[in-house]
Amino acid sequence: METRSLLIACCLLCITATAQPVQNNMKLWYDRPAQLWVEALPLGNGRLGAMVFGNPNNEEIQLNEETVWGGSPDNNTNPLAAAALPEIRQLIFEGKNFEAQELCGKTVSSQGANGMPYQTVGSLHIDFHGQEKWTNYYRELDIQNAVATSSYTANGVTYKREVITSFTEQLVIVRLTASQKGKISFDTKFTTPYQTANKSVYKKMLRLDAKTSDHEGIEGKVQFTALAKIVNEGGQQNTTDSTVYVKNANSVTIFIAIGTNFNNYKDISGNALARAEQYMKAAGKKNFTQSLAGHSAVYRNFFDRVMLDLGENEQTKKTTDRRVAEFRAHFDPQLAALYFQFGRYLLICSSQPGGQAANLQGIWNYQLRAPWDGKYTININTEMNYWPAEVTSLPETHEPFLQLIKDVAETGKQTATMYGCRGWALHHNTDIWRSTGAVDGPRYGIWPTSNAWFCQHLWDRYLYSGDRAYLQSVYPIMKGACEFFQDFLVKEPKHGWLVVAPSNSPENIPSHIKKNNAAIQVGCTMDNQLVFDLMNNTARAAEILGLDAGQAGEWKAIAAQLPPMQVGKYSQLQEWMEDYDNPNDHHRHVSHLWGLFPGYQISLFNTPLLFDAAKNSLIYRSDASTGWSMGWKVCLWARLLDGNHAYKLITDQMNPVTEERGQNGGTYPNLFDAHPPFQIDGNFGCTAGIAEMLMQSHTGAVHLLPALPDVWASGTVKGLRCRGGFEIIEMIWENNALKKAVIKSTLGGNLRLRTKDALNLNAEALQPGEGNNNNPFFAVQAVRTPLIAPEAILNTNPQINTPVYDVMTEAGKTYTFTGTAPIR
User: Fold this and answer.
1) Which is nearest to 436 in space by CA: 445, 444, 524?
2) What secondary structure letter does DSSP report for 133?
3) Looking at the DSSP assignment, which residues form a beta bridge with residue 806?
4) Cis amide leading into 677 (omega within 30)
5) Minimal CA–CA distance to 43: which of 146, 183, 151?
6) Which terminus of the chain has a lower count of CB atoms within 10 Å, N or C?
7) How would residue 449 be classed by pLDDT, with cut points 50, 70 and 90?
């Protein structure tokens, strides 16, 4: 607890973004209790998660702790891979993809465990007496202060419940009050799905002890203890073996502490009870008002850095679930802003320095086996969780993922060795134990390129911060990933290109071989983009740091030998090395568009032909998809500078859903993203997409309002961060035109602005800039000339009406720009 508190304090000292004014409409609210888990309201402090149902008669607080995972440390690599690689590659080159996949299943795929599941702790149930008939019900989640509240009237008494997952005290705290004295009576107990759990009363506290599940032959070794301390003011308290009874209290505060034996991914020698008791020492040292104030102060130091105002109308007077249901038919700009901020809320609550990265469920899960085990699915989903971190001014929340990368750079040496290579690698999944083998069979698991994607996060963080010491610390990780591909890449016989083999285009199969389920390919476009990005970025890092000049040259040479991007016969960006794309393929993954987003190899300004081809691919893929895929498509359409289409995807995302199965995505009543089932990445993807609609900084300039939809004609945003160390202190637009932009430079250097509106600085018109931006943080990534099929029809002369303006800035100074009439 002391370590985590110290980290939080250090983070607060490092804050540079300006706190924004209070937005008092940042609430989800309802006029009925939650009946389903996807209606309950999420709270979290990074380590602890709670889902609050708000039922007047039978309250449930469903509990999670970030280190409660099944299994234990395990090596799931396959020692047969290196010897089998030549035969696997030869089979692919001969067109025998199915045979290659079968051999991969025996020699590359894990023959043991496929990764361990994220698990629930259980629930605290509070069963009230004499409140069966209630009226005036109200329930809310205030994401401005991170507190869930419910209230109602029963028998002439108004009851109120407030719940927080305290950032300062590392406790779940439940406060129960009533408008009359002596009116609170209930019994409370823990429940849990673990069959061998032990429930007891310990030192007048409820106690729950359990050990996580064995899974796929791996013993569950995480032990956890949950304690609940009930403090009543007035009335009486009695206990049985596993239940606490409270009668006729004036008010009650319940403190819940959870401890585990998990120290790190290779050490589970801690003492769960001792940790829970240590957390519980904070209980009652402050009254609830003080606890809430301290908790909210820490939380708001993150949340208040960004403000978004898109306007509001009568829809704000309706319950949140009704607003979601009506979003398509009734314009509701404030709900879009609330959804944007809800994504930031979830990231703050599920990913804090010193803790674990947000998993597929963030931190919220009520099952012994979360969907897809709740693991880190790293062929898109985990990375997607962190797309909002830098741009929406939450860099500290990025740190658990960066630590995960550092961890798998160590465990991933096992996978590199498995292939007979240097460096480190892993496949499409990992877990809290940092497993790196190829899991889930060869159809999905043979994808050894996530290390390159991870390194994009390492590099991009440097572009935002300009921190050379940080770059120095992560450079060995980037270098190790390069060394893996130096050894792993192989020349394919048709063109002599260096390719990743074997691999797949996650999680798709070319239509002509779908019948035999053969996903294994070589030279997939996403792989080429990722390795190209890795090699060039690591070479740049070496140059900045004055290291490894010879190797940097080798990395650039390798990048030049990768397959270029290709445009196929349907004028589409090819997904595979061969022109296998089918315009009727509506698969949820659009992996070949990685170079458009989150990468920055494809843009209107630098690669217009690829830009047009990527757009065609996205049109063919269609809008309908799972929830997380729609979040990705918001980002892609924003990068395609089509704000109206991006907004259409936001509208699709707001499709109301309550089912926990299927492929038709949308939004649950509590604003969780629906795959379905719940996957948190869709929330984060949509938040990142809205930020991309308002500002982009990846094409050699800071682009203001690049994809503003017509319906957001006027608005204000504050606090977005740009690459190069620039911060949008305030940006105001009216009638779809930029009115004012106040930008702070933290690093100095040239600020190149791109906008359709002419700009003034200090009442003087700016002159358009020319040539390349000399700010090194905005160096444009040159890509190989694409190969274009003869049948392709592309826009070879796109109209670009967004000039750029250059302003030399000084570190620490703020610059105010005003817009004039739009340039047509």
Assistant:
1) 445
2) S
3) 752
4) yes
5) 146
6) C
7) very high
